[in-house]
Each structure stands twice: as C-alpha cells, then as structure tokens.
C-alpha cells in the first residue's frame, strides 16, 4: 500500500502529522498515476501545517506542494504520456509514495533529469521566472533588486537573471552568503543594514533597478522599494519576516512605484495550459543544462516527515530540506 504524510490538524510546529497507509487505485479516464520519487519542504508547507497559508486543505489531508515522480500507470483517453517518464505534478498532496492525478496536472520532464532538482522545480523557479516576466519588460543589462536572496526563489532569480542578461542587486542577512551568491552569478550582494535609498545607484554602477522582489516584508521590503527607479514595480511574494509593509507616501506620489503581489497558484489558475507548459519546458531545460541548481540541506525518508518539517523551520539552513519517497516503499 502507498504511504502518505497526512496533516491531522492545523497546529504550530512540531506539527500534527501522521504517516499512514493509503489505498492504491488504478487511474480513471484522463488520469495518470505517479510513483513518487522526491518532494521538497517549503515555507508554504510550514504555513499550511500551521493553518496560516492563503488556501487550506480539508483535514485530514496529504500535504506537500511540489514533487517529482515517474509515470507508472496511464488511464484511458490520456495522450502524449509514456510510462517511465519523470514528471512533476501541479497539485498539492505530494508527500506520498504514489499519486493519482488528472493528466492535466502533470508535466512530463526529460528522461534522465535529476529527480532531487526536479522536486524543487515546480514552485520556486517558476515563481522567479513569472515575476521576472509578468510585471515589467526587462531588457538586457537591467537590474533586479531582491531580498531573501539566498532563498530558493532568490537563487533562481540570480541564476535565471544571469542566463537572460539581467543583473541582480541582492540583500541577505548573513555575511557568509556574499561570496557564495556571487559564485552562482549574483552581481552585487549586500547585507540588510545597507541603506539602498542612498547606496543603490552606486552599487548598480549609476543605474537603478527596474524590478524589486520582496519575500521578507517590513523594513527590508521598504529598503528594496527605495532602490527602485521611478515608475517600476515592487512585487511581494513572501513574508518571511512576518512584518507588514508600511509604504511612505512619497514612494507612491513622487516615485510612482507600483506595489504588487504574486502568488504562483493564482498565476496557474489564470494561465493557459500552453503558458504553463512553456514555462516548465524552459525551466526544465535550464535545470538540465545546469543553469538552475538549488542546494540541498538534508534529505529525510517520508517516515521522518516530522523531523524534516522541524529541520526546515530552522534558521541558517544550507539549502532545501527534501523528502525521499522511494526508500520507504514496500514492494
Ligand atoms: N507567492 C508565491 O507564489 C511563492 C512561491 C514560492 C515561494 N514563496 C515564498 O517565498 C519565500 C521564500 O521561499 P523559498 O522556498 O524560496 O525559501 P527558502 O529557500 O526556504 O529560504 C527561506 C529564506 O528566507 C530567509 N529568511 C527567513 N526568515 C527571515 C527573516 N526573518 N528575515 C529575512 N530573511 C529571512 C532565509 O534567510 P537565510 O538564508 O539567511 O536563512 C532564506 O533565505 C517564502 O515566504 C515562501 O512562502 C511564495
């Protein structure tokens, strides 16, 4: 029987999780079954566990917002899928050894793709990619300013920006990250206490960023807003600092900065199937070519999902916490 990590109630971490056997069932028409390989533990998963996320599942529920598997069964009237193909799934409930889903929610990937990296492709690189394309038209050489630059999204922004010819001004909270992020292509990396209102133009060689990406909130969000060129967008997609953003009137009146928000789930709901596939095709090519690479902090078997969640909630991680969905399979 497949195993799944079920959330029993919304509660602070340590979470109310249980590893349970769940029934296996053959795919119905239009569905496929994935034999799951790996899944990531993201801040959004912690927010779901705590009951603070933007959309919550009915309980009890198998949780997990992204993961990678192998297509193991194909239902009738499904075309274009091959058994044995690796794939990511655009549906919640990935912390399980087996998933039965609509074929519309499955994106096949190139054979041979690294399943660990693929398990981190759905959410963060797609968020980075969409934010870099959907709010303003950047041209080669333009600057992007971002905080939480060491996050999964932040690193994807750095790597994709490099590949596209954009430049990045990155804010981090730990000095040991400066060299590391420069090593993956960051143009400039500064600590949170650098005042970007006075320093951004110098740091960007006389220019001002044309896109600000905020995953922190509070004073950090304001700091990157102050770096922006007049008329350009500031996009909030995360709230790691759990502080609201206070916007000084002058940023609206005199600089005409537009304050926007981004949620990948909302983008997927509004995007055409073609747009979704195109986005993940480009990103999987970047993954295969090595442009996109996310460091892994630690891997836990699914049976230790609770420990994985606790580890993911700690500060100072060196990368993502992943769940190995293969090692606990019973055959
Ligand atoms: N809106 C969307 O569709 C969407 C999609 C993806 C992600 N997100 C959000 O984006 C954020 C980042 O996600 P992720 O998966 O990329 O993160 P991650 O890889 O787990 O990394 C978390 C990052 O947040 C930083 N951080 C944590 N607490 C902080 C604080 N109090 N002040 C400043 N920085 C802090 C960490 O800094 P250190 O490196 O120093 O530890 C780390 O860089 C989360 O809020 C997540 O929910 C939103």
Helix and strand element order: EEEHEEEEEHHEHEHEHEHEHEHHEHE
Number of structural domains? 2
CATH architecture of the largest domain: Alpha-Beta Complex
Low-confidence stretches: none
CATH class of the largest domain: Alpha Beta
Question: Which cofactor or ligand species appear?
Answer: NADP nicotinamide-adenine-dinucleotide phosphate
Q: What is the alpha-carbon Rg in Å?
A: 20 Å
Major sheet attributes: 7 strands, mixed
Helix content: 25-40%
β-strand number: 16
The geometry reads as: globular
Q: Which fold name corresponds to the CATH topology of the largest domain?
A: Quinone Oxidoreductase, Chain A, domain 1
CATH superfamily of the largest domain: Medium-chain alcohol dehydrogenases, catalytic domain
List keywords for this structure.
25% strand, binds NADP nicotinamide-adenine-dinucleotide phosphate, Rossmann fold, 2 domains, single chain, 331 residues, six-stranded parallel beta sheet, alpha/beta
Characterise the protein shown here.
- The chain has 331 residues and is of the alpha/beta class.
- It has two domains: 3-120 and 294-324, Medium-chain alcohol dehydrogenases, catalytic domain (Quinone Oxidoreductase, Chain A, domain 1, Alpha-Beta Complex), CATH 3.90.180.10; 127-265, NAD(P)-binding Rossmann-like Domain (Rossmann fold).
- It has eleven helices and 16 strands.
- It has helices spanning 43-50, 115-118, 124-134, 152-164, 177-183, 196-203, 218-227, 249-253, 264-270, 273-288, 305-312, and strands at 3-9, 16-21, 31-41, 61-62, 67-74, 86-89, 98-102, 106-108, 143-146, 167-172, 188-191, 211-214, 233-236, 258-261, 296-301, 320-324.
- Strands 3, 5, 6, 7, 8, 15 and 16 form a seven-stranded mixed sheet that branches.
- Strand 13 (233-236), helix 8 and strand 14 form a beta-alpha-beta unit.
- Helix 6 crosses helix 7.
- It is globular and about 60 Å long.
- The mean pLDDT is 96.
- The protein binds NADP nicotinamide-adenine-dinucleotide phosphate.
- NADP nicotinamide-adenine-dinucleotide phosphate is lined by residues 42-44, 123-124, 127, 148, 150-153, 173-174, 215-216, 237-241, 262-264, 315-317.
